Amino acid sequence: MNVAIIGAGISGLYLATRMQELGHAVTIYEARDRIGGRIETIDFNLAGQAYAFDLGPTWFWPDSEPLMVDLIHRFDLPTLEQYATGALRLERADGIESHLVANQPTALRLRDGIRSVAMALAARLTPGTIRLKSPVSQIDVMNRRVISSGRKSQPFDEIVLALPPRLAARLSYVPALPEAVLDELEALPTWMAQQAKCLILYEKPFWCDSGWSGQAISWTGMVQEIHDASPQDGPGALFGFFRTPARERQLLTEAEIKKTVLAQLVRLFGEQARQSIGWLYKDWSTDSWTATRADAAPLVDFPAYHAINLGVEHVAISLIGTETDPSHGGHLEGALRSVERYLKKRGAEK
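Structure tokens predicted for FAD-dependent oxidoreductase:
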């Protein structure tokens, strides 16, 4: 069997490895010049040592995410437990409070960043499987071909869209997808597409000296949620998710955003927060291979993610990805679960 996979995020890479292990031929078309999709890990060099920081997904939860645990064990990837010792800082309009938070579920990070999962999966694929800088514009459903960079592929037995539903809706299909299916695809928000993430580095995690965990929640500042992102040995680091909506962020320069975030961190953690030694910023709402115009609207509730059937005329095409998993949508585990669901369904049909 010959399978085309559109997208080299974790769901596309995981499906490709599973399919090749089963003896099938696979071609991955990836629009970006790198693998990973919304996995983006950046290195920061300090005193000759490189430290990895994630600007996309950061954690997995071993008590409730068995597929991620199995994958990490399979590839023997070193992990770090998320630091949560000490008090959380809570910022309200009338001031800042400290609170001890009990019984938080164990969250793990990867020492070399989440990209190490993507790299480990890609390393197990047959050379030439992944075609970078190969955006797909159209799918010829009748002949089971994809059109990438203006070129029509050879026929495939199956085509799998490892894409957020809204990006899948932007593709051209011959014949066209039913309007009801397009509406369903458009209705599912892309996880992280509304968000931006910043990372601020310091010579050491100074907040620990004050009995703070580095975790903070703000109902008034630009950044709504903050966590410790420090490596086990090395500099201190804090990362934050933004409260300011995408449209408002895009009216500001990155320098203005940095200045505002640092002022907020000073309020939360004291004057030492002003002495940063590094800054990283990623606005996912401006990433054309992640977000659509519809994703500019901030989420008000957690989306009700679910699998989508593309219709009887498009039976040779399937959609996978974290947005299609009802129990772990938005998590890396959801992306892996979507692959296992596809394989189970495919096995039942063959």
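The CA atoms of residues 43 and 63 lie 29 Å apart.
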